[in-house]
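Treating backbone geometry as a discrete language has practical consequences that deserve illustration. The sequence in question and its structure tokens are set out directly beneath this paragraph.
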Amino acid sequence: MKYMIMMFGGLGAAIEDRPPEWITSMHELLVKLDAELRESGELVAGDKLIDPGRATTVQFRNGAPLPTDGPFAEIKESLAGYWIVEASEDRAIEIASRVVAFTEYPMEVRRIMDEPPQL
């Protein structure tokens, strides 16, 4: 099964209270875990995302899609990065738990829907 492991966290203001050593250690943990997933063959895809303050939100307004500057509406934490792994649910939860134990930010583990075979 494939699972998407999504890392949430407030970048910017949420980490400005953290000491530089913590930020360095968090980065090292994520780089190490990413390398482990690549080496084990479990990683299907993954990447970090830019600060949500530089995002564009597309909403339906006045009968048409309207893109606006800014992060997702009305939330303090947003998607900061993700991994898509080919693993069991227990393994996907284990991967997320390693990061949560360090960052204390929530992560979501969600199975990717099975797609029909391509003809």
In short: The chain has a mean pLDDT of 83. The first helix runs from residue 20 to 40. The longest strand covers residues 78-86.
